[in-house]
Amino acid sequence: MNVFLGVFSKIRQFASGLINNPADMAEYGSLRKRVIVIPALCILVFLVLLGWYWSQEPASFAVNAKQTPESSLVIGVTTTNTLIKVVDTILDKPGGYLANDVMPPSLWLDNLPNWEFGVLVQVRDLSKAMREAFSRSQSQSTEDSDLALAEPRFNVDHQSWAVPWPEIEYADGREYFESYKSRLVDEDNYNGQFYARGDNLRYWLGTVETRLGSLSQRLSASVGQKRINTDLSGATGASQSTRAPSELMVKTGWFEIDDVFYQARGSAWALLHFLKAIEIDFADVLARKNAITSVQQIIRELEMTQQPIRSPFIANGDGFGLIANHSLVMASYISRANAAIIDLRELLSKG
């Protein structure tokens, strides 16, 4: 405060012509610089601390929390509630939705925006499965009116900072899921349905399998590897659009690997909640197939991906080098979860 008062006093003296010798002029210039630099440093420190706070990943939540005893018995309510809660999390966490922000400190952050994108991918896949499979009794059935409006909302560009605004579109999609849920629990309204069948579950798990497989490959490529091209292996008479080399060099770059890491971490966070909900809504199907423990093991593998990160940065060391490789550790958990999902889909396909 004394600094600012001193500067204001000097400004008045300078304006009044009282400062006219070189020494006073130098002192006046020094004080003026301090008035500019000190507030700028304070603002910078504030933005750094705010960015650190906004970068904290949301904690897990109980999928059956805040459900009434009556609604918890309705098939599909737990899964729908969980999807709504996941959307609420990416919209209402500290800092709100960050992926499309163009102002500091969000502009400097990339870990949590990539985490948000990983969560959003799983939301898109589940909302698509609910529209195309879970809410329809047959392939020729009419799609649910609310889900038909909800699913496209989540496919808006997640980085768009102008019209259409992702936050508004995702919030609208959430409201359509709320409307769908209200029809599920309404005993007088039979138009809202959720069909917990083995084939519906296999449909969604097939999408999850390809997502996790892609993430696993991108994470493993952090160390770089020459891979034999197996694109057409096992397919008699198969062909592809253009020729590809017999060996491919696959490597995820140093500046990209942390983005992939946090995207995988976000996908795993959302997926473990969805699987916990599926375990409840598909309990009878899983029990008949003796597959409940299989789902629980997948959840256990995904929970391991959410362990606290005790490093100030995501290291990309060699596989057996001195520096850790966080991506390979994440790939290990993702790969094991993916293998378990493949086994679960095979189990569900058997009579």
Quick overview of this protein structure:
The chain has 351 residues and is mainly alpha-helical. The chain contains eleven helices and two strands; from the N terminus they run H-H-H-H-H-H-H-E-E-H-H-H-H. The radius of gyration is 27 Å and the shape is globular.
Can you walk through the features of this model?
It is built from eleven helices and two strands. It is mainly α and 351 residues long. The protein has two domains: 1-54, no CATH class; 61-227 and 246-349. Strands 1-2 form a two-stranded antiparallel ribbon. α3 (77-92) runs antiparallel to α4 (111-134) and α5 runs antiparallel to α6 (166-184). It is globular, with a radius of gyration of 27 Å. The mean pLDDT is 85.
Number of DSSP-assigned strands: 2
In spatial order, strands of the major sheet run 1-2
Number of domains: 2
Q: So how many helices?
A: 11
Average pLDDT = 85
Q: State the share of residues found in helices, binned by percent.
A: 55-70%
Regions with little confidence, pLDDT below 50 for 5+ residues: none
Report the major sheet.
Answer: 2 strands, antiparallel
Quote the distance from N terminus to C terminus. 79 Å
Q: Give the amount of beta strand, in percent.
A: under 5%
Order of helices and strands: HHHHHHHEEHHHH
Shape: globular
Give the class from helix and strand content and strand pairing: mainly alpha
Provide the gyration radius in Å. Answer: 27 Å
